[in-house]
Amino acid sequence: MGEAGAGADAGACQVLLLSDARALERPLDYRVPAGLAVRRGSLVACPLGPRRLVGVVLGTEPATYEGRVVALAGVVDCPPVPAELVDLALWTARYYAAPVSACLRLVLPPGAEGALRRDRDGAWRLARPARGPAPRLVARSVPGAAAATGRRADVAAALTAAGGALAAAELVRRASTTMGTLRRMADAGHLTLGLEAPDGSPAPHALAGAHAPVEAPTLTADQAAAAHRIRAAIDGGDQALLLHGVTGSGKTEVYLDAIADARARGKGTIVLAPEISLTPQLLARLRARLGERVALWHSAMSPAERAESYARLRSGEADVVVGARSAVFAPVADVGLVIADEEHDGSYKQDSSPRYDARQVAYRRAQQAGALVVYGSATPRPETWRALPRVSLPARVDGSSPPRVRVVDMRTQPPGPVSRPLARALRDAMGRGEKAVLLLNRRGFSLSAVCRGCGWVAECPDCDVALVHHRDPPRLVCHHCGFEAGVPTVCPACGAAEILRAGVGTEGLDEAIARIVPDARRVRLDASSTASRGAVTALLEDFSRPGAAVLLGTQMVAKGHDLPDVTVAAIVDADAALARADFRAEERTFDLIVQTAGRAGRRGEPATVIVQALEPEARAVRLAADAAVAEFLDGELRRREEHRMPPFSHLVRLVVEGPDRTSTFDAAAGLAADLVALGAEGLDVLGPAPMHRLRGRWRRAVTLRAPRAATAVRPLGALLAARGKALADAGVRVGVDVDPQ
Ligand code: ADP
Ligand code: ZN
Ligand code: ZN
């Protein structure tokens, strides 16, 4: 393939360049020289001045462009991005008003963002194809196997003609067959399929843990009914379903049944969990049942691990992926089922650009593929509760009843983070060698340093927030920007020597617990203790070792980890979240209480759940204590409808941010006024909100409300494009968050 090939052209294509420092967000047109096979999703080598950059082909056209359009230098020697994933990335960019390049990055093969090199053989290759050559699936003849018949005979012949071994993808092409046929032939013993490194040695993965699948338990009547309903939904062409089941009701078994069913129909499955730390447990469970054809996918994997998962999924060797939110973009072929476990969890929304919500993208991906999404939770979102057909698993599999929840009114308790009933429960449980899980939504030792004399509060110089007192080592820390300062002994405002600590954080609670049960092991799980990779898993393993132990931490402890011997679960400050000015505060509080309670007594052992609250009569606290999910959600939906909040509308949050107070203030006001002036039907402009400072920059938010996200996003795009230069000149940036959490 020559550079800028002479002769008749094959047409033209639109290419988005990936590694261009100027981050061109619009595709460029290139000519496709004759002899170059290019399609949507191909990676191509694109001349840009003297450089050759990797680009993704977004579209092709048969006609050659008129005038001077530069020709592609070549096609990169690596599998193209599947066209449906290009579609999904472009949809994500549109829906979330996010940069196209950032969304495409979610679907690229590993290494595609790096440089290109041209080899002696003339081929363009990725200069750094994610450390280590990717393994590939290889078909091999089986000597002495029974003769295949019909179309399988053609496949066997093609394999023999190739000398008895061939990359599976190549065999599919040569014999005009499908990967499914190869699988069935492998099952029937006509050939073998195995993952091999390019040098023919078995890939590391193929050697690891080749244990025999564990047999499935007989489903309970409720599980069988749910499984039946899921199959009916697939056959009936339903788009999505809510699987509502209390913790321990056997949802995972229902997922497993559905995945096996999808596999039997030749379809792949995506299984999503809200947290990376939840994926190892889920992966182990899936592999034990479904065998080794299950790949892992999350953002903390090494490039080599990612390359392996990519290759296994792309080749069809693995047909199930388990992962955190980015796995919704994994190259699973022929998706028939998407499962979003613990679907209520806000971590499904990415909190940096591109700010996509994996639950929403999952819905879109399933829609494209004609697949079904199963959203599973013990505390579903109002959104799913209202919109989706529902299947329920009302009881725990072992027949035990969930632990009773006791609400403690903290106004009647002595000062301190631990109430008398909680202290008693901890002593009892530790005395029996059992475990406890305590949730407190604040890390650090205490919330702030306050002067008793004048009320001065230590604040971050760059953010409008109080600094948090940490004990180990002693310092004041800003939880927004990381600013640190020493702990003052005298007040910098009035000179008084009485600096008090107000409120308690995880470190302070840790100290209080140490006084109550000094002999129990304590494991603290929060953003400070889990900053390093793999830390969560290590800490949870430590906690799970036999013997008395207390796990205390922020909301991380409420996530769906399956922890043994937990007989006490407590929420130390249950209504702290209610004080927040957020329409999801009630929902959050309710979920947190029910989910934390779900950590206790998972093996049917008697358990104590304690909810400490300053406002025990608050609706979310009261109903959560009774685990009254339907009543809570129905009321919550009525309230949301009254105020036209999601799911009865969509919100789009704009954060206007700049170095200077006045220009940021004015930019937000100007944007809000322009949006009002547009008079778009159904579009409400809420705000601008008050100014505040974060990491030394001024911020002011404007919230848009509309019946559909696109109603707000479309005019916004045009407006930001028109105002882009003026805003940039003032150093002002506008962040867009569609469906903010
Ligand atoms: P969930 O995902 O709803 O919390 P799981 O699927 O993890 O529930 O099931 C809870 C426990 O019950 C697990 O230990 C699981 O192995 C077991 N279990 C689930 N279904 C059955 C069944 N039909 N028969 C026996 N044990 C089951
Ligand atoms: Zn003072
Ligand atoms: Zn700060």
Structure description:
With 741 residues, the protein is an alpha/beta fold. The protein has five domains: 11-126, 3-Layer(aba) Sandwich (GIY-YIG endonuclease), CATH 3.40.1440.60; 136-196; 221-393, Rossmann fold; 405-445 and 504-639, 3-Layer(aba) Sandwich (Rossmann fold), CATH 3.40.50; 650-738, 2-Layer Sandwich (Alpha-Beta Plaits). Helices cover 31% and strands 23% of the residues. Strands 13-14-12-15-16-11-17 form a seven-stranded parallel beta sheet, with helices on both faces. Strand 3 (43-48) and strand 4 (51-61) form a beta hairpin. Helix 7 (221-235) packs parallel to helix 8 and helix 16 (585-597) runs parallel beside helix 17 (619-625). The longest helix has 21 residues, at 709-729. It is globular and about 85 Å long. The two termini are 50 Å apart. Bound molecules: adenosine-5'-diphosphate and zinc ion (ZN) (2 copies). Residues 460, 462-463, 478, 480-481, 483 line the site of one zinc ion.
